[in-house]
Design brief:
The chain contains 13 helices and 14 strands. The structure holds pyridoxal-5'-phosphate. The site of pyridoxal-5'-phosphate has 13 residues, from α3 and α4.
Length: 359
């Protein structure tokens, strides 16, 4: 009997025991025929997950590394960062640390980026030319899902030569992502969120246009060089030694997501987890963010009791919840309802929360 999930942090999330077991397989060399075989199992499934017929990679780094990679490969001078919380602000900090000229369009914490504001900003500022615009699909610090389809369409219209870089870290595998249909150039996701693997690798989709741009940049570094990754991917390989245990786990998990549970059912379960969380927390907590853009994978709430008291009481019952993040640290807590968590386990956790808050 599998133990119930008691870990409700918005990443890393609960991992199924059979996936943990995949990571204990005997080691193979990354230049071996067995590795190429494993690579060939993963790649078509990754393309399906991202909704792309272009290029996909698996990079051995956490998501932040691949956010940096996206900027290093795609930006020569100037970038526009759209912000609405801590993780979208991370793009800004990375871009500044790389010495780019960075502009920011800020929606404020708890709000979604408004496509009209983006159109207005680009109409006024793009003459100075942005190489790229960054968008955070699911802002994990606030529990907001941005409308990437609408935002990317605005970029295509107002700044057609700017690349669209999307962080899908806490959405891919739980909330629909359509890289080709939306016109996204780089889309990346760490695997410890809705994909429900242990942390350590990041999956990424890269458009032909982004690869062409990368080729023009002589100083795009070595470890995260998209062009080198593409050359190796064409030979079912990778440029340097990857986390091979993660490759086994990813192959098994993609099989489960696409052909076991099925993507549509998985998206629906995430939607149901969100609705249940909203319904069951409403008596003792307010949603911290705009309900119109509420995330299906994470909810931030402002409770009547101090958030830390609630989390400590839940810990005594064996449950781990996410703390408030950044400027919302003291006023909110977060419930991660993502990955492979069964609805019944979420219900049991929400029952315990009701007891703790005496709601
Ligand atoms: N972007 C978002 C939306 C996130 O939620 C996180 C982590 O929680 C990151 C980026 C950073 O990812 P990582 O911790 O894998 O570097």
């Amino acid at each position: 009997m599998t133990e119930p999930a008691k870990y409700f942090v918005p990443g890393p999330t609960w991992v199924r025991p059979e996936i943990l077991a995949e990571m204990t397989r005997p080691m193979i060399g990354h230049r071996s025929a067995e590795f190429k075989e494993l690579f060939r199992r993963i790649n078509p499934d990754l393309k399906e997950l991202f909704g792309t017929s272009q290029t996909t990679f698996v990079m051995t780094a956490s998501g932040t590394g691949v956010m940096q990679a996206a900027l290093e490969n795609c930006v020569a001078r100037r970038v526009l960062v759209t912000t609405c919380g801590a993780f979208s602000e991370r793009w800004y900090n990375i871009a500044e640390s790389l010495g780019y000229e960075v502009d920011r369009l800020d929606a404020g914490w708890g709000k979604a980026i408004d496509p009209d504001n983006l159109a207005d900003h680009l109409a006024r500022h793009h003459r100075a030319h942005y190489d790229a615009v960054t968008i955070t699909h699911n802002e994990t610090s606030t529990g907001i899902t941005n409308d990437v389809a609408a935002l990317a369409a605005v970029v295509r219209e107002e700044a057609p030569d700017a690349l669209v870089l999307v962080d899908a870290v806490s959405s891919l595998g739980g909330i629909p992502v359509e890289v080709d249909r939306w016109g996204v150039d780089v889309c990346m996701a760490s695997v410890q969120k809705c994909i429900a693997l242990p942390p350590g690798i990041t999956v990424v989709a890269v458009s032909d246009q982004a690869l062409a741009r990368a080729k023009k940049h002589p100083y795009r570094g070595t470890y995260f060089d998209f062009v080198a990754y593409k050359e190796k991917a064409d030979d079912d390989s990778v440029p340097s030694t990857p986390s091979i245990p993660h490759f086994y786990a990813l192959a098994a998990q993609l099989d489960h997501i696409l052909r076991g549970e099925g993507l549509a059912a998985r998206f629906e379960r995430h939607r149901q987890m969100r609705d249940l969380t909203h319904l069951r927390t409403a008596r003792y907590a307010k949603l911290a963010s705009d309900p119109a853009f509420a995330s299906n994978s994470v909810t931030a709430v402002s409770p009547v009791l101090p958030p830390e008291t609630i989390r400590a009481e839940m810990k005594k019952r064996g449950y781990t919840l996410g703390g408030g993040y950044g400027i919302w640290k003291d006023t909110t807590f977060r419930i991660g309802h993502m990955g492979d968590i069964p609805l019944a386990d979420l219900e049991a956790m929400l029952d315990a929360l009701c007891e703790v808050t005496r709601a």
